From TrEMBL:
Gene3D superfamilies found in the cross-reference section: 2.80.10.50
Signal sequence annotation: none
GO biological process: cellular response to lipopolysaccharide; cytokine-mediated signaling pathway; immune response; inflammatory response; positive regulation of cytokine production
Chief site of localization: cytoplasm
Keyword ATP-binding appears in the UniProt entry: no
Subunit structure as annotated in this protein's UniProt entry: Forms a ternary complex with ligand-binding receptor subunit IL18R1 and signaling receptor subunit IL18RAP at the plasma membrane. Mature IL18 first binds to IL18R1 forming a low affinity binary complex, which then interacts with IL18RAP to form a high affinity ternary complex that signals inside the cell. Interacts with cargo receptor TMED10; the interaction mediates the translocation from the cytoplasm into the ERGIC (endoplasmic reticulum-Golgi intermediate compartment) and thereby secretion.
Subcellular location: Cytoplasm; Secreted
Keyword terms of this UniProt record: Cytokine, Cytoplasm, Secreted
Record's keyword annotation contains ATP-binding: no
A single Gene Ontology CC term: extracellular space
Name assigned to this protein: Interleukin-18
InterPro entries the record matches: IL-18, IL-1_fam, IL1/FGF
Length: 190
């Protein structure tokens, strides 16, 4: 600390390392910290709700009756918003859902060279020290559509949550988005 004209100013110690790289001591580490949780249903462009069925190992957008929605099994999501010490492309969020008396969180895993969206039993952490396969960046879908969003997977830039027709299901998946493309399968309303 340095005293200047009766005002204290916090100074950070720095050191030069190899190749004259600049290092700061005593700075806050990069970490994601849970800030707030929103409770929402997730709808696709067809107004279908995302429903998680862990017993079948599937998450898909479905037409849901009012009565089914009241029971809410696997369709009322908690969206955990994180704050971070580094500026990122969108708000970092994680998803969880209650099914019966168990909590499941959304994550992505590599399988046969492909990234798959999964729901695993457990809770999302309050703090995430580094990269995580449960974090997605929430972004507005388009500049003229501020009430709908797209969610980019934090560990594979350009890959977004989307739905894909698989038989009679509109299954939750990750999909690559080219820079200037607008893909309605990625549009999610909260």
């Amino acid at each position: 600390r340095v005293k200047m004209s009766a005002e204290e100013i916090l100074m950070c110690a720095v050191e030069l390392g190899k190749n004259f790289c600049l290092y700061f001591d005593e700075l806050e580490c990069d970490a994601l910290c849970k800030e707030k949780t929103l409770h929402r249903v997730l709808r696709n462009v067809n107004s279908q709700l995302l429903v998680v069925r862990p017993d079948l190992n599937v998450a898909a957008f479905e037409d849901v009756t009012d009565q089914e929605m009241q029971s809410g099994k696997g369709m009322h999501f908690s969206i955990h918003c994180y704050k971070t010490t580094t500026p990122l492309a969108g708000m970092p969020v994680a998803f969880s859902v209650q099914v019966e008396d168990k909590s499941y969180y959304m994550c992505c895993e590599r399988e046969c060279g492909e990234t798959i969206v999964r729901f695993k039993e457990g809770e999302v952490p309050k703090e995430i020290p580094g990269e995580s396969n449960i974090i997605f960046f929430k972004k507005t879908f388009t500049s003229c559509c501020s009430k709908a969003f797209k969610f980019e997977y934090s560990m594979e830039r350009g890959m977004f949550l989307a739905f894909e027709e698989e038989g009679y299901l509109r299954k939750l998946t990750l999909k690559k988005l080219s820079k200037d493309e607008v893909d309605e399968t990625m549009k999610i309303s909260l």
